[in-house]
Structure formats: structure tokens, C-alpha cells
Amino acid sequence: MTEQSQAALLQALEKLTDGREAMVTVVPGRITIVGDHVDYAGGATLCGAIDMELAVGISVAGAGMWRLLLPSGAGGSGSRVEEREELWLDGGYADTAFATLLGMEQAGFSFPPLEMAVVSQIPPGAGLSSSAALCCGISLAVARFTGVGMTAPQLVAQAQMVENDILGVPCGTLDQTAIVYGRKDELLLFDAGKEQTASVACDMSGYRWLLCPTRKKHSTGGKEYRERRAQLEAAAAELGITSWREVQEEDLRRLRNPLYRSRARHVVTETRRSLEAVEAARSADFGQLGALMLESHSSLSQDYEVSTAALDTTVGAAMGVQGVMGARLVGAGFGGCVLALCEMSAVQPCRIAMSSAAGVPPEWVVQVNLTEGLAMRYPESVRPG
Ligand code: GLA
């Protein structure tokens, strides 16, 4: 988060709270390098926390009402304040924030009505985990505020519970894990099946990550995400398996339904690619890492069918630029961003190629860096599990 954004947040908070003392918690977004749509199937993902961030400021409410200052662009044009006497949900944008507070009450934290302000550089619906960042951010803000703190696994589970059980979004734990366990200048291997994380050193000298938004927003709460999970469960039932990790590509021939076969092929091959990508990143083999990103995109597009025409065209445009090693959609798909890995000299041509393919201004294509997650930032409040 830039100093400018932090200053803007503090100013907004000060206005909201009449100058009462406030506490600020800054949360990163995340990218996936290889390994999407596998977390809920016990697969592995190479991911990282990024320096596109969200900040939550909280303070005790003067008038005893819950008050939330939302950033401009969050479900309305200008910034606005939502006020509630009780913590209830109304189906609007502010629900994620209020649901997270409800979740913390349910988890046994005790706190008075709060005033909160949120500023965010993580665009909603871009596949960069804006919702998980908000859920993790508000949960941690409350945990810090009460002085009780949480363990890292607790924070991941708490933020996922809010999305799954209170908001009805059937997400896995990839986003929360990257946000909590990310490391500065390092990638993170998240193995959902083994419930393990490991940091992956990757010397990026001479290379950069570029993100290009497409014009369509995605939603993990939409019916497509739920449908993919159901198809995979049906495929697992047909194969009679309890873990996708026992399945080899040749076993997939046993699936009679071609749709289930493609969905399952994505999951099985994607985890293999993620593990190969870890090796490629560790040995700074960017040719191989880029090739795996591109294979992952094809699998997400053809076998898992979560890409869009704009995402495919933008990936194609990036790959047409010399010095671009790989490109793929990032996150759940159905819209959102393309992530490209390119040599430093290719940053500008890649920016131009992707922005013109996606139909967005070149300045919307941004470089991102890997940054530290919440466990590293707030070690006094996020204890190791
Ligand atoms: C969303 C979900 C994650 C994960 C990704 C796809 O971000 O929240 O749990 O399934 O999609 O990899």
C-alpha cells in the first residue's frame, strides 16, 4: 500500500470517527502462478501474496452504531458510509464486511460496535482475492483490536467460514492461505491435500509479473464455480475415489462422461504442473515456468472451461511479444485478469499488446511484486499454528 493510500485511509477514518484513535491493518491480494481450481480437490498451487493491497481501519463507534466507510467503486460510485444498529446482511456490497464481524462474534470474540473504513487497491472481481482479503483483514483487525490474536490456521479457517457459511460462497482455502502465509520476494506452494505450505525462493532478477484486467468481472459466488465443484464430485464418485491425488491420467479413461473426464483431467494435470512449476521457479528456469503457465491456461480454458474470449485473446496477445515467457488467467476465471511473466525488456511491449487485446487503457496493466502475508506482518497477532 502506498503512503498516499494509507494517508487517504487515515484521513477518511479520522473524518468517520471524529478523530478517535484508529488501528489500521494492511492486507495483500494474491496471484496464482499455476494451480487454479484444485484447492477444493486436494491439489497443489504455486501462488504468492502481492503488493496490491487493502487496508482496514477500525475504531470504537462513538454513537454505538456499526458504521462502515466503503471505498469509491465498491458497489456504488463515490465512497459512502453504511450504518447499522445490528449486524445484519442485506445482500449488498457491505455484506462481506458485516458478515466477517458476525463471524468473529460467532467465534467468541467480544467487541463493541465499531467504525470501519476500507480502502483497496485490489479491484473486486479481478481474480486477485479481494473478498478473501476483506474477510482476512476484518477478522485480523478485530483479533488485533481485542488483543486476543489468532493462529495462522485459525485465521485462514475463519475467513473461509465467513465466505462458505455466512455468505454462501463455496470457495476453498487458496486465497486465504496465500494472504496469510505469503513471503516477500518468494512464491508459496500451497498443497491443500497435504494441508502444507512451503515458501519457494525464485530469483526474479531480469523478470517481472504483469497483470492485465479484462472488462468482465468474475464471481466465485456465481453458479459456474459451484457447478465445476459438483461435476468434480460426481467424477470422484464415479471413480470411487476419496482423493484426486491417487488418480493417474490413464485412470481417467474409466470415466464414461466426457465432460467429467475433461474436468478431472484438469485437476490431475494441474497439480502435476504446480509441482513442476515449483522446481522451475527454484531453479529460475523461466522458459519452463512460462510454458507451465501457458499449459495451465489451456487446461483451464479447454478442459475446465472457465476462461473467456477476452482472457484467451489477451493471453494470445502477450505470447506474441518477444520476451514473454508465459501468460494465463489468474484465480477462478469467468473474467478477471491475465498474469504474464516477462523479461524486463518486454514489459512495455507486453503492456501495450495485452491492453489493446483486452480493450483497456495501457496504464491499467500493472507490475506486481511478491510481498509478505499477514503472519509475517503481524507476528504478535498471527501466531504460528
Ligand atoms: C477462487 C476461490 C479459491 C480457488 C480459486 C481458483 O479464488 O476462492 O478457493 O478455488 O478461485 O483456483
Structural descriptors:
385 residues; alpha+beta; Ribosomal Protein S5, domain 2; Alpha-Beta Plaits; 7-stranded mixed sheet; globular; binds alpha-D-galactopyranose
Mean pLDDT: 93
The hetero molecules present are: alpha-D-galactopyranose
How far apart are the termini? 27 Å
CATH uppermost class of the largest domain: Alpha Beta
CATH architecture of the largest domain: 2-Layer Sandwich
Compressed to H and E, one letter per element, the order equals HEEEEHEHEHHEEEHHHHEEHEHE
Give the strand content: 15-25%
Uncertain segments: none
Number of domains: 2
C-alpha-based Rg, rounded: 21 Å
Class by helix and strand content? Answer: alpha+beta
Q: How many helix segments?
A: 11
Write down the overall geometry.
globular
- Classify the helix fraction into a percent range: 25-40%
- CATH-defined topology of the largest domain: Ribosomal Protein S5, domain 2
- What does the largest sheet look like? 7 strands, mixed
Counting DSSP E segments of at least 2 residues, the number of strands comes to: 13
